What does this fold into?
Amino acid sequence: MNPIELPMAPVGPPPATPIATGTRRFRVDGMDCGACAKTVESAVAALPGVVGAEVSFGNGTMTVAGDAPDAAIASAVARAGYRAHPAARRVSTATSPFWRRDARALSTTISVGLLVIAVVASLASAPRIVAEPLYLLSMAVGGWPIARAAALALGRRRLDMNVLMALAAVGAVGIGEYAEGAWVLVLFAVGTGLEALALERSRRTVASLMELAPARARVIADGAERLVDVEAVDVGALIAIRPGERIALDANVESGTSSVDQAPITGESLPVDKQAGDELFAGTLNTTGALVARTTRPAGDSTLSRVASLVEAAQGSRAPAERFIDRFAAIYTPLVFAAALTLATVPLAFGGDSSTWQYRALALLIVACPCSLVISVPVAVVSAVGGAARRGILIKGGQALEDLARVRAVALDKTGTLTLGLPQLQEITATDDPEDALALVAAVETHSEHPLAAALRRAARDRGLAVPTAQSFNALPGRGATAIVDGRELWAGGPRLIEERLGMLPPELTAVHAAGQTAIALGEGSRLLALFGLADQARPETGGLAARLEAAGVERVVMLTGDSEPVARAVAGAAGIRELRAGLLPAEKLEHIVALEREAGAVAMVGDGINDAPALAAARVGIAMGAAGSDIALENADVALMSDRLDALPEAISLSRRALSVMRANVIASLAVKAVFVVLAPFGWVTLVAAIAADMGMSLLVTLNAMRLLGAVTRRGVSAGRSP
It folds into this structure.
């Protein structure tokens, strides 16, 4: 629940992101609602040496800035009734008995047993002197963690759910309702324990990801293999990977061929063939052949580690719906609490029975705790983000999740998004020697990063041509490039540059475009030397993409490309895209995104995360493809599709819409239950047991409903493999 903030001294600002030097992160076990997070946060923030503390209920972590000892921080959290330990990427499996690991679970178990004995004694008509002490003992055993947390919250001038439940139980004893007081505390303890277990399963995404990467690698040195902890393996070291083993570090294949199951990173259903020069990701599974690879990143900076860090941050982020609910709870809780006080006192002035009205007030007091309402959104975010990550879809937080669910239009770049991004030279129309023209254009494009330039260089290399050295290279964004080759001032580019230099478009250009090819011209001054026709291949999964997006709820699908319209139409037709904008410069793509947002509503832009950076930034949701090998895409996109497959795009949108639907269902159900009980409690139609059962039952229901988002995850994302 969202507690009432009472006047208190400020505890300092939360730590900045990214985490600054001197800042540590802890995992906090046992938290089951936002009140727990605030209680822990205030307890740690009050410690000497702590500059600031911030607890994320979503992913169960705490960030502490300052020099307070770890032991002092853990003790402060323990006094609040929870457990804290330094965050580690690898979470070891606990082998100690559960009562040593979780005293709260032990006390709850014993209190349930005592309550059962007390109930049996009451049903057997045992004297009150026998039954009532049993009820009190059950309350004491099961309620001491609640009472301790309540005392700490009151000490910090906070009114949270532990305070409300403790007051309800004490009030029940005060009016002689020992059995109901015991039921309130025991059901509350059981419910919060079950919630904590369910939430922990949702939060396990990061730990389960990191557990995929082996702790040791087979390092090859001096002709021999030896097992070395991954943290001690240097970048550039050679490692051996046997069939059936998981890859320990990011690396490039030096020798050998194999197929690698990359599902944990990219979500791809089929293994990917690997040979010399190909990239390997830590945590993926080598299936058939033996490989020797050279490491490219340290263990702490592997793609798997970066994905895990981003998922953890996303799970801890606050969705807009959560912020709204927090504001609502901040008003609702004190109002209902005040109503409970009024109900307990005002009727007495008119001759009402004190026990009756106090009982009704206690029931209303329990209803004042909006646990299920406040937990409904963050647990859905945690489950959805975690489930998506295990399918190769990285959604960067609650805001991105909600924005993606509300997308009405999708704009797609062509090259590298709808196509493979590997155009090939198809034909050459030259005034002189075609091969000499190819060598010259390859020289002009030597320093260009455009895929078409790379295709021309590759064609010249494949034909064994001697490419001369170019000087004074000058890139012309969106048009082409110029350079001096063998003393000649040459230019190379597309239709815009051709028309600029020649004052017209040559008739040969029409034939190239009619063949569905992209034209690149080579010229000198105002003379055309050659025309090159290149074609890119549409991705295999492009077929029917527009229909799949529309089935996911997208109303408009648009292609935005700098290529010519005939070429764009050929690719758009394969994807079923009816709306396209061709011949666009990067700035014009951005303008079209802004216009589309104005016309259609929320827009998602899909690109490679680099060339389309302005458009990706302007869109409501920027989606980068093939992000597994791109630092820029991982860090800057709102949604990153780890694989190069477009199949994940409609899947990501469908998952986000499902998550938003779960959030709405949880919130509506929680509000409905609260509304009913707030109305019924003053009339005496709600018992304390019914109130606490409804409150905790609803909390469990919204948690389990949200966890359905995890259930959609395919088992292939967590398939097992041998470790070195």
Notes: The longest helix spans residues 648-680.
